[in-house]
């Protein structure tokens, strides 16, 4: 299992590429939550999400092992992050994306000089193809979350939170495959076990909640229906799930309407465009799901790569609360 020493080593390894992202605050948000709310702003990170942390840690390690080719399977933040760091390190990268991938996401990967291959519409189709490409060219496949280097890299978010916010009571983190959440848990719980860490999932993307309840990794269907597209995993990872079981204090669910409201509130009041996946943490605080009244609470904002053409579908009117 990944430990805090792995996270500390990852921090040193990725420091020349990855930025220390700022903590943002909003008086209106804190008043609405009735707590001191801090946003850990990974939407302002290189490539627009936390994914660059784990990708940099893993690709850097792969390069040190002599690889000359990198693959990944993702049309989103992970694909962009892998393409970016591979290009920075001078390693060719091919990103396998779905046939229905949005042109904006494909163009972002191309902007980081990643090659594109289209394959199917599901991760069950894309991942085997990316692995096959890596094996055929003696390369390395970079998984999105279920790898020690990925987990350790994402855990550097937790280290920064501990240094940036005094007297943290609760950290709220979005849970998809579990790379970010398990990394933060490892860093925080091994250094400050008194800090409460709450995970959050969409109600219609509750694979981790179901798995925790059953005490074993459980696959669920229908997660592709949530607007929180970064959290559309069907089950947690083999490596991430035991960490969540060991350290997570609570896991809460938020509705699609709550996600939309939180995303809209942050954009309107704080002038920050965040992803719907990121907005789950704010929603958990705003709608009383995480029980943080009177606390110092950090909401992890995982990314900000939003398809501008879909903003009308994601935003709602928050005018009644002005």
List the SSEs and their pairings.
Blueprint: H1 4-14, E1 23-25, H2 27-33, E2 36-41, H3 51-64, E3 70-73, H4 77-88, E4 93-97, H5 103-111, E5 115-118, H6 123-136, E6 140-141, H7 148-154, H8 156-164, E7 170-174, H9 179-191, E8 196-202, H10 207-214, H11 240-247, E9 250-254, H12 256-270, H13 276-286, E10 296-301, H14 311-314
Parallel strand pairs: 2-10, 3-4, 3-6, 4-5, 7-8, 7-10, 8-9
Antiparallel strand pairs: 1-2
What does this structure look like?
- The chain has helices spanning 4-14, 27-33, 51-64, 77-88, 103-111, 123-136, 148-154, 156-164, 179-191, 207-214, 240-247, 256-270, 276-286, 311-314; strands spanning 23-25, 36-41, 70-73, 93-97, 115-118, 140-141, 170-174, 196-202, 250-254, 296-301.
- By secondary structure, it is an alpha/beta fold.
- It folds into two domains: 4-49 and 149-321, Rossmann fold; 51-146, Rossmann fold, CATH 3.40.50.1100.
- The chain has a six-stranded mixed β-sheet with strand order 1-2-10-7-8-9, with helices on both faces. The protein has a four-stranded parallel β-sheet with strand order 5-4-3-6, sandwiched between helices.
- Helix 4 (77-88) links the parallel strand 3 (70-73) and strand 4.
- Helix 8 (156-164) packs across helix 9 (179-191).
- The protein starts with a helix and ends in an 8-residue tail after the last helix.
- The mean pLDDT is 95.
- GO terms for molecular function: ATP binding; carbon-sulfur lyase activity; L-serine ammonia-lyase activity; magnesium ion binding; pyridoxal phosphate binding; serine racemase activity; threonine deaminase activity; threonine racemase activity.
